[in-house]
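hi!! sorry for the late reply, been swamped w classes. u asked for the two structures so here they r. pasted raw, havent cleaned anything up. first the sequence of the first protein and right below it the tokens
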Amino acid sequence: MATMKDVAHLAGVGVGTVSRVINNGQVKASTRQKVEEAIAQLNYEPDNYARGLKLQKTFVVALILPTVWHPFYGEFAYHVENELAKLGYKCMICNSDGRSDRELEYIKMMQQNKVDGIIALTYSDIDPYITSALPFVSVDRHFSNEAVSVSADNMGAGSLAAETLVTKGCQNIAYIGGKAKYPTEVGKRQLGFTEKSEKLGVANTFLLMSEPIHDMEGQIERFFKENPTLDGIFAINDFMALDIIRVLNHMGKSVPEDVQIIGCDGIRMAAERPIVVSTIRQPLEQMAITSVTSLIGLMNKEDVPTYNVLPISYIEGSSTKNSS
């Protein structure tokens, strides 16, 4: 197997220069190119374990997800892992199943130097364990201290959904979603929807179902029976939108002829398949890149923006009128 000395000899540089290239240190662009070409030619594989001991790093980042089954989390994990790989890090997927005790175990892993940092989508009560000294990036949730958070513009998502429904002719609209136990950025979707509806002078209401949601379809059906004139719905996510469509079909109502529906997230049920419902798309890839970039900055003790809000966009599907 090739050694670092072999790489240095072939590139015509010192071993220290090769080490700086491998560890993303500062070297001339021309020197970096020579070293990288030598690495490729010799098929040199750095000893990451020894490298980690020397630098006191594991080059492993933990990604905490509530579940691995949901396409939204799966797509986000895909982009996070890709971005980390570009920077020489491995991604450890941690499925918390929404349990705070599991999430705390992962945080302890970091405190025991088993991972270098954490990116987390968490909806549990772990606020007391998040400190500015912990390389931790939260997605879709802003903690009370200086921890870094990354999210889509959820307020803007609600506003855009309301405006789009009204533009498409809806006169009586509603927001339907779950009510999380702890505040998250996702909750701002309802706020943006309500504020925009009132500004436009359109009748609006909402259905908030406490999580974990029981008898969801029954609650949705009762809500429509209590509000028979509803003709436009903004759902908290795309899966909720699909559930609402199923309930309306059972009630004999047609989508989008009788009721137009907009979801949120912009997820695909599978790769290369079109998005089914009209939706407000979150920039998942950019959220992943920002999360990774922010975490690397924290690990390098750099100043990193603590509150990152990324732009959303509307995607036309089959659940609103005038679909292409």
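now the second protein. again sequence first, tokens right under
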Amino acid sequence: MEVKEVLQVKDTALFAVKPDSPLSEAVIMMAENDIGSVIVMEGGKLAGMLTFREVMLILAKRQSERRVGPTPPIAEILVVEAMDTHPPTATLEMDVDELRRVMVDTHTRYVPVMEGDTIIGIVSFHDVAKAVLEERNMENKLLKAYIKDWPSP
């Protein structure tokens, strides 16, 4: 199975912010749309990714700094301060097993799918798991149909 097949069975909406956007704006976007990541775009190009992990890391960092002195509230933190500037990416032709390996090795839950410099979509670990499960279920049904005397459940 290839990444393009995973994209075919999921919502294609992309949510984006700019690097100079307030972090609070990105967090509100993520909460209102029940998503775990947003892409960061600058000049029509992918500049990075912001996921709930990066949000938690910057908030924890700021809380630790607070012990030393005053820190700005979340409304004053910019996306550029928290985003992952070099997220792993996938291509449409990438094998899903290879994508899973990348995701596991880099502890990444959300991966932008690129076609050259153009972002095509975002694939989440959940999307991959769902696609693989559906593929296995289809294979299982086909095998059971092939074996004519398979007992009914």
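hope this helps!! also noticed smth abt the second:
Residues 125-146 form the longest helix (22 residues).
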